[in-house]
Amino acid sequence: MRWTVRPFDSAVVSRLASANVRPVVARLLAQRGVETPEAAAAFLHPKLEDLHSPYLMAGMTRAVERLLAAIERKEKILIYGDYDVDGTTAVVILKTGIELCGGAAEYHVPHRIREGYGMKDDVIERAGAEGVRLIISVDTGIRAFDAAETAARLGIDLIVTDHHLPESAQGLVPKAHAVLNPNQPGCEYPCKSLCGAGVAFKLVQALLEKRKDAAERRKLELSFLKMVAIATVADAVPLQGENRVFAKLGLEGLRTQANPGLRALIACAQLDPRKKPLTAADIAFRIAPRLNAAGRMDVARDVIELFSVRDEARAKELAEKLNKLNSDRQQEEARIIAAIHERIEGDAMLRESFCIVVDGDDWHRGVIGIAATRVVERFNRPALVVAKIAGEAHGSGRSIPAFHLLDALEASPELFDRFGGHAHAVGFALPSERVPELRARLDAYARTKLTLADFEPALLVDSELEFKDITPALLEAVQQLEPFGMGNREPVFAVRDARIAVPPKILKEKHLKLRVVADGGSRALDLLGWRMAELMASHELKAGDAVEFACKLDENAHPDFGGLQLTLCDLRKHSAVAE
């Protein structure tokens, strides 16, 4: 793997340091495009007042007026959501906001297998028959042209709230009563990278401005940000600008939980915010997978009930169900990924594709997105994983930074029954017999956009350190930049002067644990390589080996043997050194 040290402007570092920003923090901020003391203060200490006015979003005034009229007239309102973390939390946020303002709303979350993604005519027709006169979509709807026409025909007003990219370069949007999406043409909202729950929150924020005084509004907004933070981290949108405010304040709020479902879920994930504050990594790897498991393996409505229920026993029951579904998801994921790796390793043409498309019969559609992520991680190429059943193919794709995957699909729109997504994540459906053509077309398209150099694994290193520089004080300084995630990657440090102190260990057959010391020193630190057990054999690692490594700083909260520990990103072996 190629290591590249991030550049920085020394003048910017000096400017920030002169404003009492610690030098190491100043360098990290400069590398992240933070150039002034004012910007540094906003980055390090975001406040609720830093949120943009929701009325800067195109369509907001019209949406709020229609929603307030529905509340006043006690009309039936339906919230149409999605089955992932972003979609289900968006339903909870909007439903709760409507209720706080005196209204009531039912909701529909599609079943991933039976209905698939997006708004369906039959659901809208059924809602119309039940007397619904206002439908609000969350995390979906920006390409729901047919659904919008069906709603209009039935006399139902539709408000679309979504964050996905509109169709085509012209940015076409459905003919709805109002469309809230910062990415639609003509919308000058400053933060273009909101997740679906973030857009739903902006609608609630605007609603609260009309119904609550300033003190109560502030209290409610801080409460909502707990859920918005979970969605923002889970949906991997850039943690910059308003999203950073959401994540930072929301994670701080999660130190206490009044919601029984939230408490039960955190307990099931074996986290305790009283002992160690939750991080973005806790949300991404412990909380979000359990919430996503509902939509992947069963019914996503369980997530909404979990956050709506007031009975402690029922909340615990639902959280434990999600925990079990997540275990089932992990097993199914392992089975599919093993089959994918065997297929790719045995097919040179597939392995050398510029865009990998791999398909299988009866693969579970709920886990193919995760499988696509694993393929990208292993082969460092764009990848689409396709599940085929009864003549239909449903796929999910993930990409590398150099390749816009949605543009690639839009180059062959006639192949698909439907598709959508972002630059680096897409979903789609098409007849099974078209999969070979899809594979050929995407490979050909990718070869016009990518070079072999784009596939070379690269690691951005923020700074090179001497072993002695890795201290709890450095960890404390780095933690000022949390939360980490997309757009604010956790800092990576390179250490050149180290050796392995004791024989390496393999944990749970897949993780690598090393104890390292400075070359010629005695102070030791633990170095953990998650899913890096293969390094043990490929590098023939043993005690005494001189190594250089790239790592992230972490903290083990165990009361007996906790403290500073390092997370391995990459390792290179020098010559062996006698003990």
UniProtKB/TrEMBL annotation:
Gene3D superfamilies: 3.10.310.30, 3.90.1640.30. GO terms for biological process: DNA recombination; DNA repair. InterPro entries: DDH_dom, DHH_sf, DHHA1_dom, RecJ, RecJ_OB, SSDNA_exonuclease_RecJ. Pfam families: DHH, DHHA1, RecJ_OB. The keyword Nuclease applies. Residues 356-447 form the DHHA1 domain. Keywords: Coiled coil, Exonuclease, Hydrolase, Nuclease. Residues 461-569 form the RecJ OB domain. Residues 308-342 form a coiled coil. Residues 76-232 form the DDH domain. GO terms for molecular function: 5'-3' exonuclease activity; nucleic acid binding. The keyword Coiled coil applies. Belongs to the RecJ family. This is Single-stranded-DNA-specific exonuclease RecJ. The lineage of its organism: Bacteria, Pseudomonadati, Acidobacteriota, Terriglobia, Terriglobales. The gene is recJ.
